[in-house]
Design brief:
The structure is a homodimer. By secondary structure, chain A is α+β, with helices and mostly antiparallel strands. Chain A has one domain: Fumarylacetoacetate hydrolase, domain 2. The first copy, chain A, starts with 12 loop residues before the first strand and ends with a strand. The structure holds magnesium ion (3 copies). The site of one magnesium ion has 7 residues of chain A, from loops.
């Protein structure tokens, strides 16, 4: 089954940067005092079965597995301490891979210009099927994993998020309202790295030692 | 008449930075060798009559008047020299104000982090009514203007664009496909500056010495 409506209903994809301490270290980045975020265009979403991630010529292409939140209603100026309101505003989840042209991003960082191109190529957001909320009782207690050609590359718990989901949704919604169908990426744990043409990425999520079947991504 | 469908049909707003030489100078920026771009979320669009631009607390809020293109069809990998293809892909135009939290943007530039918050607050994209293509025979020969409290602040011809529309659409579409309803902002001429609470911005466009009536913006 294709993800029902994730792309069709999505008007923006908001992504948190640097939300896991060990990932910040591996890229020699500075730990942020508050969450910061960027946008990927909805046109970058790659649904299950839509086939390979494009490798723009000469680009150092990195994977970043992330928990995606699919918003269920409008959220504006959410108070930071409204954990229940934050969780209630989420309609469901997905596993996603925030593909990143790392060299393009590094150049943008040096020049102080936007990350948009580095993050926004077509196919740069492989996403799983829609995961119903009931399958993830606690989004802060989920094991995310990603393999390349069968080798483990990322495997960590969402409990390691520096800024938890209510804080993330609060920060975003105090700048830009979130709308039904918007997608929020919550950051990647350590282990990011390069993929070459022909590599196969698989990703997924586990709850209490069990795979969530609908959470699988397999993409060339 | 409200802009028919500009917001409703918009999935992304792609904005070109630094596309007029005198504006680059006034902000002490480096002239880019090729166009770069960033995204504003559709949720930042403020249609005619939707009332004032919000001033986030403590922010140095700047206006930037720009010609907006409303895309009429999907564009992917447009060749740089396909001027006719570029113009044919445009359904219509609008005048827009790319509101910018200048201090937030300067901090982001220094830190090498995204411009998203600086550009993406709710109400940060006042837009005019939809301007039919027939009203603008040549988008590179249009006078854009903006006043604050009745005083001229920006008034320049789109003939001054460093990268003309076909080049801009080519660069964007080689990264991310443009889709019907997407909005492209083509950069701001010189004269950007601060607005305070209570200031009234007016903006518009002239062709051959005549105002385009549907192009007017008036916003507090
Ligand atoms: Mg990421
Ligand atoms: Mg967007
Ligand atoms: Mg601008």
């Amino acid at each position: 089954m294709a993800s029902p409506g994730i792309v069709a209903n999505c008007r923006k994809v908001v992504c948190i940067g640097r939300n896991y301490a060990d990932h910040i270290k591996e890229l020699n980045n500075v730990r942020p005092k508050k969450p910061f975020f960027f946008l990927k265009p909805p046109s970058s979403i790659l649904e299950p079965g839509q086939g390979p991630v494009l490798r723009p010529k000469g680009v150092n292409l990195h994977y970043e597995v992330e928990l995606a939140l699919i918003m269920g209603r409008q959220v504006q100026d959410l108070p930071e301490d409204d954990s229940q309101g934050a969780l209630d505003s989420i309609a469901g989840y997905a596993v996603s891979i925030d593909m990143t042209a790392r060299d393009v991003q590094e150049e943008a960082k040096k020049k102080g210009i936007p990350w948009t191109a580095a993050k926004g190529f077509d196919t740069f957001l492989p996403i799983s099927n829609y995961i119903p909320k009931s399958a993830i009782p606690d989004p802060h207690n989920l094991e995310l994993w990603l393999t390349v050609n069968g080798k483990d590359r990322q495997r960590d718990s969402t409990s390691l998020m520096l800024f938890r989901i209510p804080r993330v949704l609060s920060e975003i919604s105090r700048v830009m309202k979130l709308e039904e169908g918007d997608v929020v990426l919550t950051g990647t744990p350590k282990g990011v790295g390069k993929v070459e043409v022909g590599d196969v990425m698989r990703a997924g999520a586990m709850v209490g030692g069990e795979e969530i079947e609908g959470a699988r991504i397999e993409v060339g």
